[in-house]
Amino acid sequence: MSESVYKVIELVGTSPTSWEDAAKQAVETASKSLKDLRVAEISKLDMKVEGGKITAYRARVALSFKYAAD
After folding, report:
1. CA dist., res. 25 & res. 31, Å (int)
2. What gap in Å lies between CA 1 and CA 65, rounded to an integer?
3. How far apart are the first and last CA of the chain?
4. What is the pLDDT of residue 18?
5. Which of 11, 20, 47, 49 meets the CB 3.0–4.6 Å disulfide criterion with 26?
6. Phi/psi of residue 5, each to 5°?
7. Contact indicator for 11, 39 with CB cutoff of 8 Å
8. Considering the entire predicted model, what is its pTM?
9. How far apart are CA 55 and CA 20, in angstroms?
């Protein structure tokens, strides 16, 4: 088995409908520029409130991907 190195970054995804969709948005957006995504871990959930109403769900996501040195 070969050795591997992974990098972990933190992202915040947002959605007007749900935390699940907010997390999905974060991962799908990251996948457009990062390769070999491995694990996504939700570290925090919160909501944006304006005028007493929820306007956005936010999910803080720790996302790991395989690190390839040049």
Report:
1. 10
2. 18
3. 21
4. 97
5. 11
6. -125, 140
7. no
8. 0.83
9. 15
Average pLDDT along the chain, 70 residues, taken 10 residues at a time? 84 97 97 93 97 97 84
Measure the CA–CA gap between 44 and 55, rounded to whole angstroms.
Answer: 17
CA distances from 14 to 2, 25, 41, 61 (A): 37, 7, 15, 11
The answer to whether 59 and 47 are in contact (CB under 8 A) is: no
Identify residue 19 by its one-letter amino acid code.
W
Place of tokens 């871990």: 41
Q: Which two tokens stand for residue 45?
A: 């959930």
Give me the amino acid identity at 37: L
Q: Which residues pair with 48 in a beta bridge?
A: 56
